[in-house]
């Protein structure tokens, strides 16, 4: 399966557009985003020694990250932002800014 940012954005918009309520207002959307970050934290806590409460499952990190992505796509769509362009801008920024920040892996057959 290959899914572009544009595909994901369009699919979210098609889903949301079926309903009269439409996208949540900005502060509610921010609350939803924060909620999903908390759910990611809970899964990671469970993976690192926190015992789930009775009746609580350990969670599913892949699903929680996807939940966060859904909210991010909703925020971008509601504001007419293009996450693909944003991603490209962000990657260009860190590729330039952090080009010498980290220790590079040795390249096979070459000295590091
Ligand atoms: Mg979730």
UniProtKB/TrEMBL annotation:
<dbReference type="InterPro" id="IPR004518">
    <property type="entry name" value="MazG-like_dom"/>
</dbReference>
<keyword id="KW-0378">Hydrolase</keyword>
<dbReference type="GO" id="GO:0016787">
    <property type="term" value="F:hydrolase activity"/>
</dbReference>
<feature type="domain" description="NTP pyrophosphohydrolase MazG-like">
    <location>
        <begin position="26"/>
        <end position="102"/>
    </location>
</feature>
<protein>
    <submittedName>
        <fullName>MazG nucleotide pyrophosphohydrolase</fullName>
    </submittedName>
</protein>
<dbReference type="InterPro" id="IPR012359">
    <property type="entry name" value="MazG-related_YpjD"/>
</dbReference>
<dbReference type="InterPro" id="IPR047046">
    <property type="entry name" value="YpjD/YvdC"/>
</dbReference>
<dbReference type="Pfam" id="PF03819">
    <property type="entry name" value="MazG"/>
</dbReference>
């Amino acid at each position: 399966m290959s899914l572009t940012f544009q595909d994901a954005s369009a699919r979210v918009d098609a889903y949301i557009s079926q309903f009269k309520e439409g996208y949540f207002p900005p502060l509610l959307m921010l609350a939803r985003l924060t909620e999903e970050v908390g759910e990611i934290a809970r899964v990671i806590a469970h993976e690192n020694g926190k015992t789930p409460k009775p009746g609580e499952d350990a969670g599913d990190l892949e699903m929680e990250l996807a939940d966060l992505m859904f909210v991010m796509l909703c925020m971008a769509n509601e504001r007419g932002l293009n996450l693909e362009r944003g991603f490209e801008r962000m990657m260009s920024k860190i590729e330039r800014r952090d080009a010498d920040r980290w220790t590079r892996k040795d390249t096979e057959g070459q000295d590091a």
